[in-house]
Amino acid sequence: MADEQQKQTETPAADQVNVEQPENVVEPGAENVEVAADATADAEALKEQLALAEAEIADLQKQLAELQPRAQAEIQNMRRRAEQDVEKARKFALEKFAGELLPVVDSLERAIEVCQSEDEATKALKDGVEMTLKLFLDGLGKFNVEPVDPQGQAFNPEHHQAMSLVDAPDAEPNTVVAVMQKGYLLNGRLVRPAMVMVAKG
């Protein structure tokens, strides 16, 4: 009996025992709470970035919608200008060539004017030159080269070049009374103006 009492006095009570707890012990579930908080913060940041990206996309789509009609109009204008340039190049490619041939026409016309004699030899020559000139003018006509012969017409500064003003009582003022050299057009564009004499006003 005495021994048992002694053991009971030596053994401390459970509530009196000092159990040392480790300093770095993490309560169960604390890590999960921190990870969840970090995930929530990351999700919020991603939501903000997504909202900014969507706003930027909407702004770019709006700008594209505004620019698209303008770009299409610009492309159409460029296409139209290119087509016009090609058409002009096609229509007026022969302009310099036609200009070089016109003195030949002038020479043939002068030869016909000189051959006014009734001599048979001269008459045959004149007929030959006239035929040559006709063939030449027909060839030019196939390429839309047209003569400008404004005899008796009103003076047109776009197609005529006035060499002098003359007194012409029988003609209206500012009328062409004599053509010194014919002019020529290529598809409506002036290749060479007609040299004319104009009645005074």
Automatic annotation (TrEMBL):
Highest taxon, organism lineage: Bacteria
Localization of this protein: Cytoplasm
Keywords of the record: Chaperone, Coiled coil, Cytoplasm, Stress response
Subunit comment: Homodimer.
UniProt-listed PANTHER family: GRPE PROTEIN, GRPE PROTEIN HOMOLOG, MITOCHONDRIAL
Stored NCBIfam families: PRK14139.1, PRK14140.1, PRK14150.1
Record-stated family: Belongs to the GrpE family.
Protein name, entry field: Protein GrpE
Native source species: Marinobacterium lacunae
Gene field: grpE
